[in-house]
Amino acid sequence: MKSEGYVLCYLEIEGEVVSVGGFRICINLAAEGKALYVYDLITSENQRSKGHGATLIKSIIAHASKENCNCVHLDSNVVRHQAHKFYLENGFDILAHHFLFKLA
């Protein structure tokens, strides 16, 4: 996946991977120029609410800043209310709806 620019990062606690993130840096006029887009962000269910996700997302945001990105984007399924709360608590705003057209 490296050839596509996809970066996988993780947080490990005592030999256990507890949180994983995957992102790509891209340039898009609608995304305020250079942006980091988070495609995947998950914390093990038994490790949630322990600050691991916050540690990982802060690390991803720091990486975006180091790479001179203008913003960090991500999508979240509309029914993931706990995830939305997490993103809002970590400084994200809800700005758009995401639309999908499936091809056969």
Task: Summarize this entry quickly.
The protein has helices spanning 52-66, 81-89, and strands at residues 7-13, 16-28, 33-43, 71-74. With 104 residues, the chain is an alpha+beta fold.
Furnish the topology, listing elements before pairings.
Blueprint (H helix, E strand, L loop, with lengths): L6 E7 L2 E13 L4 E11 L8 H15 L4 E4 L6 H9 L15
Parallel strand pairs: 3-4
Antiparallel strand pairs: 1-2, 2-3
Structure description:
- This protein has 104 residues and is of the alpha+beta class.
- It has a single domain, classed as 3-Layer(aba) Sandwich (Aminopeptidase), CATH 3.40.630.30.
- The protein has two helices and four strands.
- The protein has a four-stranded mixed sheet, covered by helices on one side.
- Strand 3, helix 1 and strand 4 form a beta-alpha-beta unit.
- The radius of gyration is 14 Å and the shape is globular.
- 15% of the residues are buried.
Oligomer: single chain
- Mean pLDDT equals 91
Widest β-sheet, arrangement of strands: 1-2-3-4
**Termini, distance in Å?**
24 Å
Q: Specify the biggest β-sheet.
A: 4 strands, mixed
What's the shape?
A: globular
Count up the helices.
Answer: 2
Name of the CATH superfamily: Gcn5-related N-acetyltransferase (GNAT)
Instruction: Tell me the fraction of residues in β-strands, as a range.
Output: 25-35%
The low-confidence runs, each spanning 5 or more residues with pLDDT under 50, are none
